[in-house]
Structures are given as C-alpha cells and as structure tokens.
Specification:
The chain is mainly alpha-helical. The chain is built from 20 helices and no strands.
C-alpha cells in the first residue's frame, strides 16, 4: 500500500489537473464558491451543484488552508487530498480482503491486482466527489463484514454511520443499502430474530442511524427544500437528468433484451476502450460497457496494445471465475464468503443496469459510479485461487496466479505513459 501511495503521487505529478476530466472547471467552481462565500450554492446554480455538498465543503476547507499558508499550488493541495481519499479506499479494501482471503499468496495477488487496476490509476488524483465516496463505500462494507463475522454492535454502528457519510457525498451510495438488508437477513437466518434484540438497545446503532439520517438530510433534504423554494422538480436520484434529456442526443442508446443479455465479441475486441459518444467499442452492450469503463472510464490512452492485453485478460478472468465456481460448487456451498464477494459486486452493477434502464444514455452505465465494487471482483479472483490450492488443483491455481501477475505487469506498463492531458 505504501508503494501504491508513492505510485499514485507520481501519477499525480505526471498528469495535468484537467487530465481525463471534462467537467473539472465545474468541480472547481463548486469548491471555490463555498470557500469564498462560506455557503453552499443552489442546486440550480451550476452544472454540478446538484451533487451533495460534503466533499466540496471539505475541499473548500483545504483550499482556504492552502491560501492561509501561502501555497500557490492550491490545485496540487486539492489533488493531494484526493490521493489520500483514494488510498483510504485501498486500505479499507485490503482489510476487507484479508478477512475473506486467508492464505497469503492468493491474498497478496488479489491485493496487487486491486492496487494496480487501471481504473484506479486513472481516477486516483482527480478532483471529484467520487474520491470521497470510494473510501466511504469500502469502509461501510468492511464494518458490515466485521458485524457479520463477529456480531459486535459497534461494527454495525460504524457501517451505518459511514454509509451516511457516503450518502452525503454521492447519491450512488444508495447501492450499499441492499447489502445491509442481505446482511440482516443472513444474521436472522443463522441466529434467529432474537439475535437482533440486543442490537436495538445498542447506543452504537442509534448513533449510526442518526449520522445516516443527517447524511440523507444533507443530500435529499437540501434538494427537497430548494425544490419547494424554487417551485421546481429536481430529480432526487439523478440531478442532471433533465439536462441530459435535453442536450445529450448523441449519448442516447436503446434498451433491449439484447443490450443487457447479449455480448458481441467483435465489438469487445475491436478496441480496448469505451466511448459514450460512439457505438464503436460496444457501448450498446451493457456488459461490454461495464468491463471497459471499469478499466479506462470513457477515455482513450496512448498505449493501445497494452490496453488491449488488459481488456483481454479481464475477459479471461471472468471465464476463470465461472469455471472456478463450477469446479468448486460443493465446497462453496459451505463457505458464505464468496456470496459476500458476489453481492458486493452484483448489486452495484444491478444499480447501474437500473440507472441505464431509467436513463438510456451511455454514461448511465459507467462503472466508475460504483468503482469500489472492483475490490469484490479482485477478491473473487483471490478466493478462487485459494480454493484451487485447497483442493490441490494446482494447474488452475497457477493459471489464475499467472493471469494476475500478467495483469499487474501490463498495468505498470500502461501507467508509464497514460498521456498528460
């Protein structure tokens, strides 16, 4: 993790603050408005001011401190804190994976895969509220897992409280709530309804619920208040939905059974990248868009050949996981860890599918909205290798390990020239 921190700082210094970010000026306008006026802007005031204000308030504090200390590189100060946020996400993910992948070799392999994942390298230093959402998502998942495994009331309190902070940062955090419901049902199934009674008397639970309620008020309460004052109807879930419906004709895609359940190998392989503006590359197909946007967002990069290798490796990993589940099905039935990985990955992706269904534009299915779920994918790879080692299927374990090592090597090569602008 320390080496990854140095890596992220290096990438920050090698890239311009406008790098791979079309709406960066709007993020900076939001931050500087709060710093100059000590107040939140109206949700109708700018292109991005519908976003919950927590992240921008924290960044405004950093901006004022940088100015007070005489720093001329206030953009660098803002980006540095985003690297800190992203590294916090990595730390929570490492703690979560450690509880589920027990053998050292599979654990370090899946952690290396997560640390070097290209999508993370691309977003690690950008100025965007996603960077605060990522550690909040993963922190909530970590404490939820602690509660599932050990049943401590303070853990569920922490999980709910951090989820509230996530909601005050991005509305995307709502995808965490079904995981809480599933965790509760699992505890009831395993220990009975009576196991929840002491929890209801726990101070930690109610403190967590209070913080969660405050996060919801900062997000949805602000929108409701301004809708009433302005006599308008801003969407609570997708704040720029009306804007996109008016001006984003080039982003529109069709919804059909084929788009969700089909997969074109030709479209997947014709380019490693995903574009929200062009059908070239497979934006029509939901699963192609998910895989490619998890790797590169909606951008193209100079190292096309290396990017192509990474895209092919991801498809190989998916096939490897399906084969691993089929080979270890009987053993997996007795080990619920893989279900935790599965739902932590599947539910956010399902949220993206619903988002695309309701708002059929290409950027509705961008995996960066739920990027922390990639930790579950990396964990599934480590868990699959661990199961093969346990069952003495050494050939499969070697195949998975070699695939991850190649993936990490290609990611390092990819990061050596991602372009500056």
């Amino acid at each position: 993790i320390a080496a990854a921190w140095v890596w992220y700082i290096y990438l920050m210094n090698q890239t311009h603050f406008m790098w791979k970010k079309y709406d960066m000026p709007q993020h900076l306008d939001y931050i500087t408005y709060i710093a100059n006026n000590l107040a939140w802007p109206s949700i109708y005031q700018g292109f991005l001011t519908y976003h919950p204000p927590l992240y921008y308030t924290l960044q405004a504090i950093v901006l004022r401190l940088a100015n007070a200390l005489g720093s001329f590189d206030f953009i660098g100060s803002l980006r540095l804190f985003n690297v800190i946020y992203f590294t916090s996400f990595i730390m929570f993910a490492a703690l979560t994976l450690r509880r589920l992948v027990l053998q050292p070799l599979p654990y370090y392999l899946c952690l290396a895969m997560l640390l070097s994942y290209p999508g993370g390298l691309v977003v690690s230093a950008r100025i965007d509220s996603d960077l605060l959402f990522y550690p909040c998502f993963m922190g909530s998942i970590y404490f939820l897992l602690c509660w599932l495994q050990e049943g401590r009331n303070r853990d569920i309190g922490w999980a709910i409280a951090i989820c509230g902070i996530a909601v005050a940062t991005r509305t995307n955090a709502l995808v965490i709530l079904p995981l809480f419901a599933l965790a509760g049902l699992y505890r009831v199934h395993k220990f009975g309804w009576q196991s929840l009674l002491p929890l209801l008397k726990s101070r930690a639970l109610w403190i967590g619920i209070s913080i969660f309620a405050a996060g919801c008020m900062m997000n949805f309460g602000r929108t409701a208040y301004e809708n009433i004052i302005a006599n308008r109807q801003q969407s609570y879930l997708v704040g720029n939905a009306s804007f996109l419906s008016m001006v984003a004709a080039g982003l529109r895609i069709t919804n059909s059974w084929e788009s969700y359940f089909g997969f074109s190998l030709k479209a997947y392989l014709e380019t490693p990248f995903f574009s929200v503006w062009s059908d070239y590359g497979g934006r029509y197909y939901f699963w192609i868009s998910i895989i490619k946007s998890s790797l590169y967002g909606e951008f193209t990069f100079p190292k096309v050949q290396v990017s192509y290798y990474l895209t092919c490796l991801m498809l190989g990993f998916i096939c490897y996981l399906f084969a691993s589940v089929a080979m270890n099905y009987k053993q997996l039935r007795a080990q619920p860890q893989w279900l935790f990985f599965f739902f932590t990955l599947f539910i956010p992706i399902l949220g993206l599918a619903v988002n695309r269904l309701l708002h059929p534009i290409a950027c509705s299915q961008d995996f960066r909205y739920v990027y922390p779920a990639i930790a579950a994918f990396c964990g599934m790879m480590g868990f699959a290798i661990e199961q093969h080692l346990t069952q003495k299927r050494y050939t499969m374990a070697v195949i998975g390990s070699a695939g991850i090592i190649c993936f990490v090597a290609c990611s390092i090569l990819f990061s050596t020239n991602m372009g500056r602008h």
